[in-house]
Amino acid sequence: MRLRFLGSTSEAGACPSLYETDRGTIVVQGLTLTDPDARADLRDVLDGESAVEVPRALLVEVARTLLSGPEPDITVVDHQ
Questions:
Q1: d(CA 66, CA 75)
Q2: How far apart are CA 24 and CA 32, in angstroms?
Q3: How far apart are CA 5 and CA 18, in angstroms?
Q4: 77 Rama sector, left if φ>0, alpha if ψ -120 to 50, beta otherwise
Q5: Three-class SS string for the chain?
Q6: At 38, phi and psi to the nearest 5?
Q7: Which residues, 6+ apart, have CB-to-CB distance to 27 below 8 Å?
């Protein structure tokens, strides 16, 4: 599987970040969700699965870019 960088809200380009795969899926890079109350709200987590948290703004901007053009080349910086 190969990944193509879609965007990030990190100034350093680390995480959180989103990638598109050559299999038509999206990979999310981020910090593992460790809050026990939040983890308790997850549904049907299978062995080998995890959850990461990403800013909503990152998902919205990448979705807009994917829907409006052929090749996204974006970096979103959120200074919140």
A1: 13
A2: 23
A3: 6
A4: beta
A5: CCEEEEEECCCCCCCCEEEEECCCCEEEECCECCCHHHHHHCCCCCCCCCCECCCHHHHHHHHHHHHHCCCCCCCCCCCC
A6: -65, -45
A7: 3, 18, 19, 20, 21
- The whole-angstrom separation of Cα 73 and Cα 41 is 34
The candidate with the shortest Cα–Cα distance to 32, out of 46, 14, 53, is 53
Paired tokens of 2? 């190969």
Asked if residue 23 has pLDDT above 60, the reply is yes
Does the N-terminal peptide bond of residue 16 adopt cis geometry, omega within 30 degrees of 0?
yes
| pLDDT at res. 41 | 96
Report the pLDDT averaged over residues 59-64.
85
